[in-house]
Amino acid sequence: MSHVPVSWYLILSAILFTLGVAGFLFRRSVITVFMSIELMLNAVNLSFVAFSYQLKQVNGHIFTFFVMVVAAAEAAVGLAIILTVFKNRATLEVDEVDSMKH
Amino acid sequence: MQHLWLIPAFPLAGFLVNGLLGRRRSNAFVNLVGAGSVLLSLAWVLKTLLALGSMETAHAERYFTWIESGTVNIGFELAVDRLSAVMLLVVTGVGFLIHVYATGYMSHEGGYYRFFAYLNLFMFFMLILVLANNYLLLFVGWEGVGLCSYLLIGFYFLKHSASTAANKAFIVNRIGDFGFSLALFLMFTKFGSLDFAKVFPAAGRLPIEQEAGWLTAICLLLLVGAAGKSAQVPLYVWLPDAMEGPTPVSALIHAATMVTAGVYMVARSSALFLHAPVAMEVVALVGLLTAVLAATIGLTQYDIKKVFAYSTVSQLGYMFLALGVGAFSAGIFHVVTHAFFKALLFLGAGSVIHALGGEQDLRHMGGLRKQIPITFATLLCAAVAIAGVPPFSGFHSKDEILLAAHHHAPWMYWVGVITAAMTAFYVFRAIFLTFFGEARGHHHPHESPPSMTVPLAALALLSLGGGYLHVSKYLEPLFPAPEGAHDSMLVIISVAAGAGGIALAWLFYVVRPGLADSLATSLGGVYRLVYNKYFVDELYAAAVIRPTIEGSRAVLWRVMDAAVIDGLVNGIGARCQGLGGVLRRSQSGNIRSYAAWVVLGAVFLLWALGQPGESR
Q: Among A20, A90, B18, B435, whose CB has the most other CB atoms within 10 angstroms?
């Protein structure tokens, strides 16, 4: 197995994270925003695993599992919220859900 | 323990009862409380003085510590010695008579209970002033009587001139009190205490200041305070205007008691003044100048109360002359006799005004001798007393003052004699214009009720016989007897001057009534100058009041208040509003803009952490 340097993983992780941020910022659909969040979480997971592999330590793996559990819970709650918002507002546009400022 | 506190407590209780409950009560109830509380006070004074006996030393009672902070320890401490005993008797005695008189004089006035409540409050503060055993407590009484004076001058507060006069009295007194408080600060810095029992011995141990030093400064500042309260040059201008108050007030506060507080205070501080001869000289000169100036103004006034007001100023000048030449006991003696005859003059004038239904102008009086005989007889007693006719009271006290003045500097004696002649002239001018000649008004005069005439009669007896109350001898343990042998020549001269004044008044206003007017016309400018009170009020208005008002308007209001303070406050408000307007936009409710801020923040943090920091 050819040796892949850890920096490549990190670069990939950074690219994925940036894509997530960009998606979060620039997309309007709640579903896409939600997916962007997942993308960011998994980008971080990737860097955790990469470090864990390089440092020969198990911590990174454990963090990754935690993140995955939290992400699953978040997906459940988040989708429920999205459903409720859609029921009440009949929209999935993020910009139209701005009543918090009042 | 003699329970000295009861002396001021009675009038205070009277003030509270009348002030809180008097409104719904009958006049008889208000009378009983108002005059009764003062009578109780007088009784307690007498009881205390009998119990204390000869009082070679002061009897002090400390009730509680009033102020304690660091080295400052000021107690609520009352004391009575021979000086305060004399003052106590005058204040409560004459005060009681005037309260009785007021029950008759004020019976038709509105705000009856209010009047008596204020009078009782005045008595309370005056007694505190006299009984205080330290300067701060004295100052409390001092300010309190000023307050009551203000309230009572402005008693007819719907009348514009009365409220203006009250303001004038209050403001002019503030100037004096400013000097007084500076004196207290300086005294505290130098002596570390304001207690009479500590300050006076400490001052006594100091060398006599031949050159002006800080002791002189203290004394001069005290004099500023005394000049304000006791209407001396240059702060006398409030007293003639204070006649806007009801006549019993003029008698009690602006003739017999409050205005002599300055004399009392200076006499009380004699230990300080004796070590500051420069200040003493200033006191004498101020007194002499006041005496002459006010007497000349008194010669020309037509308002009967104004004549007696200037006479009061002039007599207070005499008292300061006495203090200044070192004859403290003579000054206090004159306070006593003056309280008798000047209170009587004012009450008599009040009786005349009462009889004429409010007329105060001497030109509209005349020929009242027959119609109001008791008032006439008693006023005549006061007049002979103030004119210095032997053997009545004014003669004795004035004589002591003039002898002491002659011993100090003969020219002061001569100026005093001239003033005495003028005093006799203007008082008898008022008497003759009121009671002799033809009736010039269209009134139906009626004699006053007994509640007014009985106090008049009592004061008349005191005015005639008061000279034999050996006040000076009684005060000898406190003040050294004035030096100088008794010179009968000097006495004869001053008596002759008084008699001359009376004779001149008789000539001008009874024998040849037109003479005074033709003399006034021929003197022209001088007469107008004096008649208009040397234009002092106008001078003050031009030199002090108008610049103050204009300066306040142009600088303090338009610049300081409107531009600087308002500008600062409004500017801060506007800036906050602007900043808020900008910040408000960030609070859009748009989740993506919030996220953008988070990202920007993260980027900034990463950048900041990446900067090469200082090595730790």
A: B18
- Gyration radius (Cα) of chain B, Å: 30
Q: What pLDDT shows up at residue B482?
A: 64
Amino acid at B38: V
CB B330 within 8 A of CB B404: yes
CB-based contact, A100 to chain B, within 8 Å = yes
pLDDT per position as a tens digit, B465-480: 988 888 888 888 888 7
C-beta of residue B130 within 8 angstroms of C-beta of residue B264: yes
Q: Which of A25, A97, A98 sits opposite B588 (nearest CB)?
A: A98
Shortest Cα distance, chain B CAs vs residue A58, angstroms = 27
pLDDT at B485: 65
Structure tokens at A82: 């999205």
Q: How far apart are the C-alpha atoms of B401 and B419, rounded to whole Å?
A: 13
> Across residues B220-241, what is the average pLDDT?
93
**B535 DSSP 8-state letter:** G
Say whether pLDDT at B613 is over 70: no
Q: Give dist(CA A69, CA A75) in Å, integer.
A: 10
Tokens of B67: 């102020």
Q: Percent of chain B beyond pLDDT 90?
A: 60
Choose, out of A19, A25, A39, A97, the residue to mutate when testing the contact with B (most B CBs < 10 Å): A25
Question: Residue B146: pLDDT above 70?
Answer: yes
What is each CA distance from B222 to B139, B185, B286, in whole angstroms?
A: 11, 11, 13
Buried b (16+ CB within 10 A) or exposed e, B185-224: ebbbebbebbbbeebbebbeebeebeeeeebbbbbbbbbb
d(CA B276, CA B598): 80
Helices (H), B132-254: 135-153, 160-191, 196-205, 214-229, 238-241, 247-251
Reported ipTM: 0.80
> What value does the mean pLDDT take over residues B57-78?
89
Pair B59, B81: CB distance under 8 Å? yes
Name the least confident of B190-194, B320-324, B444-448: B444-448
Q: What is the enclosing helix (H) or strand (E) of B570? A: helix B566-586
Do B590 and A21 count as a contact with CB atoms less than 8 A apart?
no
pTM reported for the whole predicted model: 0.81
Q: Please list every residue in chain B whose beta carbon sits closer than 8 Å to the beta carbon of residue A101.
A: 587-589
Contact state of A25 with B588 under an 8 Å Cβ cutoff: no
Neighbours of B22 (CB within 10 A): 24
Cis peptide bond prior to B391, omega within 30° of 0: yes
Query: From the list B587, B589, B592, which residue is nearest A25 (CB)?
Result: B592
Chain A, chain B: beta-carbon pairs less than 8 Å apart: 27
* Mean pLDDT (whole number) for B152-174: 92
| DSSP per-residue string spanning B279-322 | HHHHHHHHHHHHHHHHHHHHTT--BHHHHHHHHHHHHHHHHHHH
Kindly determine whether residue A95 and residue B599, on different chains, have CB atoms separated by under 8 Å: no
Quick: pLDDT tens for B349-384. 999 988 888 888 888 888 888 888 999 999 999 999
- The residues of B whose Cβ lies within 8 A of any Cβ of A are 587-592, 595-596, 599
* Domains of chain A, start order: 29-90 (1.10.287.3510)
pLDDT of A100 over the 80 cut: no
Please give the Cα distance from B253 to B261 (Å, whole number): 10
**Torsion angle of the four alpha carbons B454, B474, B260, B462, in this order, in degrees rounded to the nearest 10:** 20
Contact across the interface for B592 and A98, Cβ inside 8 Å: no
Residue-wise pLDDT for B336-345, tens only, equals 999 999 999 9
CA dist B527 and B297 (Å) reads 10
